[in-house]
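Need residues for this backbone.
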């Protein structure tokens, strides 16, 4: 089999640093010859991306600033993307945010503002991104997002983010129905816990890792590379018959206990 993403234009959203799941996915896609455009949030993320891509030997990458909490930013980013790549064959949405104070204690203490922020950035953004990606994906393709088990179960301290992920997973199903006729698939990957900047915002994240390791059928943590492999499957010709799905990449943790 040849390179799975040759001649494919993919948008990767959510690389902040070398631990970002989005960067793991991008690295896997680069190996498959994908032509990747990136949106970034903040100058530090841009500088990191520039450095990483230089190390990968990639010249003149398309780097586009985008704050997904702002409609006008998403609109401008996709206009820029249209100019730079024209057709799009895949979107990796790997973005979430909740105030650190909301990721601990009682869920009933969630503030209205904290609830709205988590939903806005972590869930609604996929809806707006899909709307703007659609006209560029006129050859079909795959949209993926990242979720977590806290959408299905009440995971300690995950609180408001669990509720945002539940909305995200429901959005995946509605978007899959809307975009299916255009030959665009929409799926989420429910990844096991991975040490990243966002994850460190969850109180007692280290103990969560330990519990996960002990209780998962495979008795180990999931690797970013394993999440990236499933992302590749969903964004390449291998996964064209799969849509509206939430695939757990968590060493089986969700089926245990
Ligand atoms: P990360 O911190 O590397 O990535 C989060 C990204 O969201 C960052 O790039 C950040 O810049 C971006 N972001 C935040 N606010 C934004 C805004 N307003 N506009 C645009 N971008 C914004 O952490 P990560 O763990 O790689 O997270 C990526 C995705 O994976 C998230 O959806 C997260 O919930 C999900 N996830 C993570 C884990 C884990 O354990 N790390 C497990 C399951 C799912």
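Answer:
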């Amino acid at each position: 089999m040849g390179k799975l993403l040759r001649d494919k234009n993919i948008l990767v959203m959510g690389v902040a640093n070398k631990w970002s799941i989005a960067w793991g996915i991008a690295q896997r896609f680069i190996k498959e010859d994908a032509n990747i455009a990136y949106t970034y949030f903040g100058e530090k993320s841009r500088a990191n991306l520039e450095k990483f891509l230089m190390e990968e030997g990639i010249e003149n990458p398309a780097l586009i600033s985008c704050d997904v909490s702002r409609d006008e930013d998403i609109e401008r980013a996709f206009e820029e993307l249209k100019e730079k790549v024209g057709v799009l064959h895949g979107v990796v949405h790997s973005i979430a945010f909740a105030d650190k104070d909301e990721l601990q204690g009682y869920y009933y203490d969630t503030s209205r503002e904290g609830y709205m922020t988590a939903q806005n950035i972590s869930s609604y953004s996929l809806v707006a991104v899909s709307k703007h990606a659609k006209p560029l994906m006129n050859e079909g393709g795959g949209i993926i997002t990242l979720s977590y088990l806290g959408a299905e179960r009440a995971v300690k301290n995950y609180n408001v983010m669990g509720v945002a992920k539940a909305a995200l997973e429901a959005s995946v199903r509605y978007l899959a129905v809307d975009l299916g006729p255009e030959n665009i698939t929409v799926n989420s990957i429910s990844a096991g816990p991975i040490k990243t900047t966002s994850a460190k915002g969850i109180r007692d994240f280290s103990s969560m890792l330990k519990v996960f390791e002990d209780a998962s059928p495979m008795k180990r943590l999931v690797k970013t590379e394993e999440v990236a492999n499933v992302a590749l499957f969903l964004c390449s010709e291998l996964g064209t018959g799969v849509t509206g799905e939430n695939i757990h990449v968590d060493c089986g943790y969700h089926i245990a206990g």
